[in-house]
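Anyone? Bumping this.
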Amino acid sequence: MTERTLIKDLAASSDGPVSVSGWVETVRDQKKVQFVVLRDESGAVQLVAPRVSGDDGEIVATDVSDTITSLSQGSFLTATGELKHDERVKLGGVEIKLDALDVASLAIAETPIKDDSGIDKRMDWRFLDLRVPRNALIFKIQTTFLHALRSYWVEHDYIEIQTPKLMASASESKAELFRVEYFDGSAFLAQSPQFFKQMAQPAGFGKIFEVGPAFRADPSFTSRHATEFTSVDAEISWIDSHEDVMKMHEEILVAGFQAVKDKHGDAIKELFDVEVTVPTLPFPRIPLAEAKKIVASRGYEIPRADDDMDPEGERQIAAYAREELGSEFVFLTDYASTIRPFYHMRREGDPSITNSYDLIFNGTEISTGAQREHRVDVLTEQIKEKGLDPEELDGYLDFFRYGVPAHGGFGMGLSRVLMLLLGLPNLREATYLFRGPTRLEP
Amino acid sequence: MTERTLIKDLAASSDGPVSVSGWVETVRDQKKVQFVVLRDESGAVQLVAPRVSGDDGEIVATDVSDTITSLSQGSFLTATGELKHDERVKLGGVEIKLDALDVASLAIAETPIKDDSGIDKRMDWRFLDLRVPRNALIFKIQTTFLHALRSYWVEHDYIEIQTPKLMASASESKAELFRVEYFDGSAFLAQSPQFFKQMAQPAGFGKIFEVGPAFRADPSFTSRHATEFTSVDAEISWIDSHEDVMKMHEEILVAGFQAVKDKHGDAIKELFDVEVTVPTLPFPRIPLAEAKKIVASRGYEIPRADDDMDPEGERQIAAYAREELGSEFVFLTDYASTIRPFYHMRREGDPSITNSYDLIFNGTEISTGAQREHRVDVLTEQIKEKGLDPEELDGYLDFFRYGVPAHGGFGMGLSRVLMLLLGLPNLREATYLFRGPTRLEP
């Protein structure tokens, strides 16, 4: 492979021969000197080619000067030349005096998107949109964040699983389910790895995690929904309650945010004007009933008949946690059984309450976690109570008939975490290629 | 959470109070003493409960003795008692004298699968099948392997991407494509992340990786095929040829195998009778034409009209690499253009050959890699030549119209690597929940 130097490493390199590769951001084709600003995944640098004069003092065309004249914005090339440190150069204090240019690919001169293009137009041209350093940074942050989570889990003896996304039947509700033509029959796309990550518990895996896609046939067009999203899941055995899940959950987030701050804190400050705060342990925990009182005392009445929060309620309780408790994160606990799925365990002594939580980050829910009901008789009753048919869930119920430990876990939307960390207006910005009801391309 | 000690850590723990959690492997309910072998994800230990005599010398029933008598195999429980080191105890040299048992869940007494159950029956009861230490070890190895790969990539500044599995059209061929009902229209499940990982190159991401599901509507029932599998993918910019891809590919495999050997070498030797060999760099590279001659000289004529290998040919060349070159891995290179997809770059000066390779491990192909054709005019010609319609691939072709670096990458089947590393008879053993034409459950 051509020994290219990453542009971010030029400032620390010695003056002398160097090779960089990237795409053309701007060309200034002047009379006496030509400039190209070249960008790679790590930064941008100025390439300089002084015009060459002939014996008669007239400018002479050279391979390099002709190539530069032909360069369109977005063209990819490798430049070799002499690196020179020069404090007067605003762009990184270095420039490269060109010896040669090797053009890999000339771009069409038109630029389909501009700085002020709308989000839909930008998604149409996502590969160009991602050249913007601010947009690419999102996925570098995501990489660092995920690796910190996985490293925590691996160091704590978790097993990584890959659960199938093709299922014979619905995992939870039949609404929002995509049907797949499967040979002569049908399959369905997993809405979450719920059943299969729970399966790891009677399998004796102890502690597991998974990062993978989940699918929801949700026709809504909010800023927070997608038909396909990356779900971050963990499930652990031998818990006493959801408190044990929350404890692990907050620890991985501290690990993730610490890694992000260490590696990208400065870039995030520069490009998003966001100061990454590593949360302190423990995160605040507020039972839902108390949270509703707090929200009411702030002058907001949640307009819902059930016992749930609504988005504005989440924002209000998050504002309270930030202002009064100094935390961007808050666990809301003790959700009512009426609004939780059948597999959430109910509180001993008060079955109207579940051993479950939502995690709110900067005003929006990013995760739901719970202790699971592992007693097959109680589980069967809860299935019936929710109007579901235990017969249809017989395969799932088998997991609980042959021995199973107490267990619990959470599922967390990856793009939501990124969106809320960086203050992005919607999920699309934090998704490599967004999928929605009217968006399947590119 | 209950402070449980992992059973593997008991030998190094001091005698005294201890708590372990797991499932019942055997019960020996004897007259003077009761024994339970308890297993968790890390090992097995013997629990001992001497019978208690009353003043009259008769055995008295206690909570503990009654509980043990009721225990069925597979029941999950937490045991507390006194840890005692005793060399005479064959199982790890320790035992726990029971103070109390807390049963989380009693198992149904029947055991649906036995040691000699067939693979299909075992898959029906996969959560019980995975309790077998040998089967669970596969996924611990996989966890270690994947983490080593990802760590290599993260340390080398790769960006992790999650490409969508829902697509508007076929990624490569229309055969083997699953159709999804998508609101009022159709979507298709990605057969590979090929197009979208390539998209990261004109996006300027430089180097990317992904580990995620891929789907093939392949009706075959071989030991090496599945309708859903985990694909390990990487794609890098600014390569000179497929050689640069192979270089990275072999380096990640060395990292992965070294980590597996370090962490699981002994257990793999014990449970699979396999000595993990960390491959040495570089792996042998054999052009296909030469490989065919070698195979022929070993007495095997490949019965194919095209220029491809067949499974027996792969076994033969692997045997040659093992015997003559001392390597379990071998790159076969220079595949003919006729049997490679349109997006493989062809050799400069000899378009009958592609800049591509297959990686053979222990006799079976685990991966295909290539330099991609990034020149849009050449690419368009190759699409036509393969009988495809450039119009239908217009969105993909856009990736190459606005500037793109030279690039290449590979896709590798995760379960295949595990299967071949451990000498498993088929892919199902190395898949958490296998999916095939007639297998969608559990």
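Late reply, but here is one note on the structure posted above: The two ends of chain B are 30 Å apart (CA to CA).
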